[in-house]
Amino acid sequence: MPLHIGENATDLSLLTHLSHDDIANLQSVGRDAQAARREYILKDDQENVWEYLKSLRGKNDDKKVRVDFVLDNAGFELFTDLVFADFLVTYTPYVSQVIFQYGFSSSPLTQSRLINPILITTLLVLSPKLIPWFVSDVTPPDFLSTIPSLLSETFFPSQPPVSSATEDSASIAAAGPDDKSKPPSTASVTSELGVDSRPHLREMVERWQRYLDNGTFGLSVPLETPIGAQNDKADFWTSPWPYWELKDKAPEIYEGLQASSLVIFKGDLNYRKLTGDVRWPVSTPFETAVGPLNGSFPILSLRTNKADVAVGVPQEVADKLDAAGEKWRVNGRYALVSFLPKSE
To answer: What enzyme class is recorded for this protein (predicted)?
Structure first.
């Protein structure tokens, strides 16, 4: 889960001023890197989430559990969404099916198939936007291109291209002698993916393709759905309404989410809409800030701070960060993991 939070910090709005080393650090996945990130999680409900997921095995006699994802960014974040889905399906005893959702639709749920009758069947429904609302939001074409791109031999070339001296000179001249922001060459970037890693990447991505082909990963609308298509069960995600209005403005979505065992809201914008985009006092409980959604269905919000709204943070922690001059609300370094169960 720390990786899943860290990748949310790599959206396009924050990359314009970051160096290559900064981005590589954000995308690092080692144990030490993940442990270091933990101190930046100002509200951390991870243990509660895992305990809740484990408890689902005893609560569902029909062995069917559904998890919904409301997605955020394309690119590296979508890649790690797929990694997370793969982890749940392949390496845990809780999940045996994933359904990717473009807007909420109940039709794919009829495709449920129990791969292993000992496991819980989890319908993991991922909901992207039908327009790139804030530039980098996941759309159906993004999903359509992700797996083929990762399987392409040219995506991670075996031999990094060698730039010519003329090209290097032109780049340096354009940047200026004192400009230290020149990005690294393609050679330095591609060489970081070791040759030994490529077969493992291909094995994983080919498994994703098999999961799509056999129904383990499912889609709620056709992959070919174009950008800008209208769907009554998807348009709410790009409407001006806070998610407090979900029940009234999008009752089909709301009713579907009520049937979910966990709804995961990814990213800063979804967090803002969950909390009404109100600048609450930081110590306000998350359950207060989500208003009428509290108790409606289990909510997990994974959010890197990029806007002023933040709740569930101890006042003394916020005061200390403010006194240190940390722009912790907006700089993308700090995160919140907020979990609310469904009311019994």
So the answer is: hydrolase
User: Measured in whole angstroms, how far is the alpha carbon of residue 217 from the centre of its chain?
Assistant: 16
> What burial letters (b/e) apply to 13-24, b meaning 16+ CB within 10 Å?
ebbeebeeeebe
pLDDT of residue 127: 73
What pLDDT, in 10s, does the model give residues 109-167? 333 333 333 334 445 566 777 888 888 888 888 888 999 999 998 887 665 444 443 34
**Average pLDDT of the residues of the chain:** 76
Rounded distance between C-alpha atoms, residue 318 and residue 324, angstroms: 10
| Phi and psi torsions of 44, nearest 5° | -130, 100
Residue from 47, 40, 22, 3 nearest 310 by CA: 40
For residues 104 and 85, give the distance between their C-alpha atoms in angstroms, rounded to a whole number: 18
CA gap 129, 235 in Å, rounded:
8
Span of 19-28, 41-50, 66-75, 204-213 with lowest mean pLDDT: 19-28
CA–CA distance, 35 with 46 (Å, rounded to integer): 13
As a whole number of angstroms, the distance between CA 243 and CA 275 comes to: 8
Domain boundaries, the chain: 2-162+184-340
Distance CA 184, CA 99 (A): 38
Q: Residues 23-44: pLDDT tens digits?
A: 566 555 555 656 667 889 999 9
Candidates 288, 233, 217; CA nearest to 105 is 233
DSSP sequence for 172-190? HHHH-TT-TTPPPPHHHHH
Answer for the pair 343, 50: CB distance below 8 angstroms, yes or no.
no
List strands edge to edge, sheet with 64-70. Answer: 41-44, 335-340, 299-304, 262-266, 64-70, 121-127, 98-100, 217-219
Q: How far apart are CA 173 and CA 245, in angstroms?
A: 54
For residue 143, CA distances in Å to 101, 128, 198 come to 11, 9, 21
Cα-based distances in Å from 202 to 80, 144, 145, 151, 155 = 15, 17, 15, 6, 11
- Cβ pair 302, 339 in contact under 8 A: no
